[in-house]
Design brief:
about 140 residues, alpha+beta, 4 strands, globular
Length: about 140
């Protein structure tokens, strides 16, 4: 009877630890997070750049969005808790930043500074964002 209880306890211990063992062996899939950063005040150009950024990603990367390989996040850097992004990405104005995340950690980022240059031309803007996302997707 004692052996049965010891075996039962050992079995319960193994079963309860197995999710931790299997989870430790799993890695998070790599992904790209596209951050559109802005402040509280938003001019016409700023809202247009967010719209074009979202359109480029949602139109050209539907399956990557659906699978979680790409995420689009709009972030107000003036809201409490978001201030750290300004220092992390050296932000000085509204920006679109692509962040490559592997195993839950950012390994690379790129600030797409030319969005200001292309803000007046929807197709050039979308082409630029699409090309930059495609280039980073090669590393996912």
């Amino acid at each position: 009877m004692k052996k049965f209880i010891v075996l039962l306890l050992a079995f319960v211990a193994v079963i309860s630890l197995s999710p931790l063992v299997f989870a430790a062996g799993k890695r998070s899939p790599a992904k790209i997070i596209a951050y559109y950063f802005h402040g509280t005040f938003r001019c016409n150009t700023c809202t247009t750049m967010e719209k074009y950024s979202r359109e480029a990603i949602e139109t050209h990367f539907k399956s990557a969005l659906a699978s979680g390989r790409i995420e689009f996040r709009e972030v107000n850097v003036e809201k409490y808790g978001n201030e750290h992004f300004v220092n992390e990405y050296q932000l000085y104005t509204k920006s679109l930043v692509l962040s490559l995340v592997k195993d839950g950690k950012e390994v690379k980022f790129k600030n797409l500074e030319l969005i200001w240059e292309y803000a007046g031309n929807r197709q050039s803007f979308i082409d630029y964002v699409t090309a930059e996302v495609n280039a980073l997707l090669q590393e996912v």
